[in-house]
Structure formats: structure tokens, C-alpha cells
Amino acid sequence: MKINAFADVSLRALMVLAAAPAGALLTTQNVADSVGTPYNHVSKAMAKLRTLGYLEVVRGRTGGSRLSHAGRNATVGQVLRQLDTRTDAADCVAPGGNCPLINECRLRSALSRAREAFYQELDSVNIANLPVSGQMAPVFSMIGLRPGL
Fold first, then answer.
1. Can you give the pTM of this predicted structure?
2. SS3 of 126, please?
3. What are residue 66's phi and psi, to 5 degrees?
4. 149 pLDDT more than 50
5. What is the rounded radius of gyration, in angstroms, for the C-alpha atoms of the chain?
6. Per-residue confidence (pLDDT) for residue 87, from 0 to 100
7. Contact 51, 12 (CB under 8 A)
8. 27-75 tens-digit pLDDT
9. Residue environment code for 83-102, b if the CB has 16+ CB neighbours within 10 A, otherwise e
10. In angstroms, how far is the first alpha carbon of the chain from the final one?
11. Which pLDDT value is given to residue 44?
């Protein structure tokens, strides 16, 4: 299975926020710099994560984002399900219309079950437990923060 670029950026943003020192607020620019992704992409991901309830945002000059309680307890599978915009695991629509095999297609249902099995496997992976100090220390040093691990 392959996740889309938006889900990838969103998961990396959650990992950075999970590893931030307790109580620290990170700006979207901090997160963008940390994950090596353009600000505009990270901004969209952060907005979606806030809408989903994974982030708390403090506005103002000294504001920023941090994980909410729900964000600290979120699993990779849970987040990916919410960010997956595909309605079908297979592209059953061709330029000329639907695939002629679409009626009673067993492949589509098998692929849907496989996708759900992928997410179920990731339901046991808590995002807050993914970052480790060796991984995050250089990242936080780069943006001027001390790692909180």
C-alpha cells in the first residue's frame, strides 16, 4: 500500500509535534522546516489536522500548534483512514467510462479488504510513540529548539 503525499506530510507533522518539548508551541514554519516540506503543503496539512481535532492552536505573536489529547492518542491507522480521499482502492473508471467488469467485481472488494487490513495493522501504532530522541535532536537543533525526549 502507498499513502498519498498529503497523508505523508500530515503524519510527519504529527510526529514532530509529538516530539516537541512539553508545552512548546511550534509554528507552521517550524514544522515545515522540520519535515523538509514547503510551507504551503504543511499549512494545508496542519489546517486539516486541526479540523480533525488532532491539534490545538494558539493564535498571536507567540502562538503555534501542539498536539491535542486526541492527537497524543491517535494511531497511524486512524489518521490514514481520515485522510484517505480515495473512494475506491482501484481505478474502476476509465476515460471512456466505467470498467466493463465493474458489476459484481471481486477484485474491487478484495482490494478494499486489503486496504482495511493495512489500516488495521497500523491501528496499533500510536503516533506519539514514533519519534525517538536520536531522530529528533538534529531536527529540533536545526529549528532552534531543544528536544523534549
1. 0.83
2. strand
3. -150, 165
4. no
5. 18
6. 67
7. no
8. 999 999 988 899 999 999 999 999 999 999 999 888 899 999 999 999 9
9. beeeeebeeeeeeeeeeeee
10. 31
11. 97
Please list the residues that pair with 94 across neighbouring strands: 97
Question: 128 and 109 in contact (C-beta within 8 Å)?
Answer: no
Burial class (CB in 10 A: 0-12, 13-18, 19+), 13: buried
Q: H-helix or E-strand containing 93?
A: strand 93-94
Nearest to 72 by CA among 137, 126, 32: 126
CA distances 133 to 12, 13, 124, 146, Å, are 15, 16, 21, 10
| Residue 57 grid coordinates | 492552536
pLDDT at 74: 97
Mapping DSSP onto H, E and C, the string for 36-91 reads: CCCHHHHHHHHHHHHHCCCEEEECCCCCEEEECHHHHHCEHHHHHHHHCCCCCCCC
Cα–Cα distance measured from residue 74 to residue 79, given in angstroms and rounded to the nearest whole number: 7
d(CA 66, CA 76): 17
